Amino acid sequence: MFDWMLTLADYPDEREHLRRAHRLISRxxxxxxxxRLVADLRTAAELPDVxxxxxxxxxxxxxxxxxxxxxxxxxxxDEKLAEAMYGLLGHPSFxxxxxxxxxxxxxxxxxxxxxxxxxxxxxxxxxxARLAGIDGFIDHWxxxxxxxxxxxxxxxFRIALEALGTEPETTLMVGDRASHDGAxxxxxxxxxxxxARDRRVDRTRLSPAFSMLLx
Length: 215
What we know:
Layout: H1 14-24, H2 31-45, H3 48-54, H4 61-74, H5 79-88, H6 101-110, E1 116-119, H7 126-132, E2 140-143, H8 144-147, H9 154-164, E3 172-175, E4 190-193, H10 208-212
Parallel strand pairs: 1-2, 3-4
Helix pairs in contact: 1-2, 1-5, 3-4, 4-5
């Protein structure tokens, strides 16, 4: 099982997200502006209503949009900029595949190992995988908005196990967040949590240690 964002595909940080959104609406922005906006977003993310919305935001496309707009509103971001920011989320151009992903998934596929992508997401990732040339290496898609459940709820891991036809003790979950992807361990699934320091599009995101498991 693979997570998607920050495991197979990049997710730019807040500064880059804001910078690109400003560019989309042809609005100038300074480094000081970005610092302030990032701070406002992080403060807003801790507000009770924003946290409640985030806890279920990937259970549907509608909930995701509502939660994202609430977050922006509570951070004091105007509607035009908020719409530009939201339009980037989930778009393939905003989330490029990490270096080495195609080779690693290809080797797993060649070894006869089934792969499921299990992602908290509000959009269909199948076209993203097709554009990246990795769709043929993924056997099953467990997307939260299609199943109305998101990590760390154990139900989403059970859905993936059923799709793969495997038992917990013969399955590996690979992700970037111990709080969410690591919850698979509660079902007896081994987990590999990738370190944050490797988050660069031009660097192989999948750990060399994981590659060793293939051989």
